[in-house]
Design a protein that fits this description.
It holds the Pfam family VTT_dom. With 147 residues, the chain is mainly α. It has 6 helices and no strands. It has one domain. About 3% of the residues have low confidence.
Length: 147
């Protein structure tokens, strides 16, 4: 199994490039990070593409987790103080809306560019995937739902 997965991964890296494959593996909810890291350790991916792909691939998730943590802290502070909307920022997460916008925009663009071809390998219709992506595409630069 590992040899088959490694051979398939080596072919994908040769065809698509190391950076693209690392980003896609990091974005994939079906591939645990530990397993992806272990598989990549047995390939020819160098440190540069591995690091850059990991950073780019984890940005969207990090933005969502940071937002969820900040929202949870706000709810907890509101519950403790009894006043809705009253809270202090905790020291654990410096949270800026611009960070969310950048992370979500990058993640959306990577998915829009790579997902149709990736899913086509498994029989999906590229054009149908592209149409669906365009239907759900969001202009994060004007999004105000972070508050």
């Amino acid at each position: 199994m590992l040899c088959t997965s490694r051979a398939a991964l080596d072919r994908a890296i040769a065809k698509e490039g190391a950076l693209s494959i690392v980003v896609l593996l990091r974005l994939s909810p079906a591939m645990p990070l530990v397993l992806a890291s272990a598989l990549l350790a047995f390939t020819q991916v160098s440190l540069g593409p591995y690091t850059a792909g990991t950073v780019v691939g984890l940005l969207p998730f990090s933005a969502v987790y940071c937002y969820a943590g900040a929202a949870g802290a706000e709810v907890a502070a509101d519950a403790a103080s009894g006043a809705a909307g009253a809270h202090e920022e905790g020291p654990g997460c410096v949270h800026y809306d611009s960070d969310n916008r950048v992370g979500l925009s990058i993640g959306q663009e990577v998915i829009a560019r790579r997902l149709p071809d990736f899913l086509a390998q498994f029989g999906a219709d590229r054009d149908a995937v592209r149409r669906k992506i365009e239907q759900v595409r969001t202009d994060w630069s004007t999004y105000t739902g972070f508050e």
